[in-house]
Amino acid sequence: MQSLNRIVLLATWIICLLFNSAFAVQSNDDNNSEGPADPTPVELICHPGKECYPKIFVPTTTFLPVEVDQVIPPGLHVRLNIGTGGREAKLIDPNENEGTAVYVEREKKVDPQPGIEYSDLVVVPDQDVDQSSILNGGRSSNETDGPPPVQHIPPEPESLRPNPHLSDSDWEAFNDAVSVLKKSAPQATSLTEALQKLSDMSHEPEYGVKLIEMSLQKLINIISSSEYTTSIRSSAAITLGNSLQNNAVALSRVKKLFGSAAKDVVLKPLLDALLNNKDMILERRLMFALSRTVRIHNGKQDFVALDGLKTLEKVYTATRDLPLRGKIAAFLQDEFLDMDMVEMEVKSGVKGGSQTVIKLKDDLSGWCDILQGDLVERDNGEGSGDLDSEVKVLVTLKALKEKYSNKCAAKKELQGWLDGEKERVKKEEDDGEWIKVPLEDVEHVFFGARA
């Protein structure tokens, strides 16, 4: 009996020991767990009758609309939606080979992010929300005052990632067309065929780089010479524009080929050709080529030095081609109004992209009367005009009014034209919101909210 009691006591002691050990392990796991911490609360912005959204815009790999009071983090690819007049943003895709802009608050600085090439520093208008703590790494805005900084950006791209889908036969066709282009006196028929082929192939970044390296001077010569037909010159212009479009490597090649001489060798011939030609298709394609070429290193500064804004003003007022006017208005918006003009001037003797920020201040307020004059001359009749160019002019006019305020007064005919256009839009379902929004935006900035 005594032996049995001992066995029961021993068993009880063992069970208690195991229970305590298990409890201790569980408690230890609870105390030392390194699981995910509670997520940081997301600050939301809420308006009556509208779904709440994050105060800081959350990007994805596709373009999403940005609310007017959202903060745009630095280093995103941001664009203007011409249809709605609003901004859209997404994560930068390195495969797009774009010198994507960094967005900073007005009069604030932000260091460029490593691994991204910057063609411009873009300034967004002041917003109600305070972005300084995000964009200045927690520093107060007062700490950003002082002389223009020297910023360090990554070196310009040297090459593109090869496209494995380009076959040997594709390259052979490309090289054959280039060989025709480089001849001193090619036959008109063969040159026409070669340029038509190259205008299609130049969309491919690798071909665009090779065209700039091998044939930039020849393309400029064709574009600027009256010895060639307008059809051939038009094909050369669109080939040049396609080669440089969204192609940072091709843009850097222009700089390497001509350096500071690009101002006179590339930009000036394009401006002269645009001013001195009246062929509608050629003018449109020259404007396309110019809008891409101006993005070469120091391009906008050179464009201003060549009195390019005055040239565009002369072309705009002289032409009756509404699509060309739309292209010029979009150029002003993209290059001068949607951003303060910022150029990077490489300091001599410094390799690796040490650059001084230079802000060029140009008064575009005179365009306010020009664009209004264009609009009020357009008929509000059904099916008249060119809606795409109208939207571009409206978006640019709104930006001019916001930037120059008192120097951009409304013409007396503007309110009547806006009223007539809004009435027309109500009757034409195809226009809808696409044109209604910029019409209302222009009315608001010039005349305020109406009951």
Keywords:
about 450 residues, mainly alpha, Leucine-rich Repeat Variant, 3 domains, three-stranded antiparallel sheet, 16 helices, about 50% helix, about 10% strand, disordered N terminus
Gap between N and C termini, in Å?
A: 102 Å
Tell me, rounded to a whole number, the average pLDDT: 75
Biggest β-sheet: strands ordered side by side in the sheet: 3-5-4
CATH superfamily of the largest domain: Leucine-rich Repeat Variant
Number of domains: 3
How large is the count of helical segments?
A: 16
The helix content is 40-55%
Rounded Rg? 30 Å
Structural class: mainly alpha
**Strand fraction:** 5-15%
Largest sheet: 3 strands, antiparallel
- Could you tell me the number of beta strands? 10
The backbone outline, from C-alpha atoms, is globular
CATH topology value of the largest domain: Leucine-rich Repeat Variant
Note the run of SSEs as H and E.
Answer: HEEEEEEEHEHHHHHHHHHHEEHHHH
Q: List the uncertain runs.
A: 1-5, 16-39, 97-155, 340-358
Give structural notes.
- With 451 residues, this protein is mainly alpha-helical.
- The protein contains 16 helices and 10 strands.
- It has helices spanning 2-32, 132-135, 168-182, 188-201, 205-224, 230-244, 248-258, 262-276, 280-293, 299-305, 308-318, 322-337, 367-377, 387-404, 414-427, 432-447; strands at residues 44-45, 53-54, 64-66, 77-80, 87-90, 102-105, 121-124, 150-152, 341-346, 354-360.
- A 3-stranded antiparallel β-sheet has the order 3-5-4, with no helix packed on it. The protein has a 3-stranded antiparallel β-sheet with strand order 8-10-9.
- Helix 3 (168-182) crosses helix 4.
- The protein is globular and about 65 Å long.
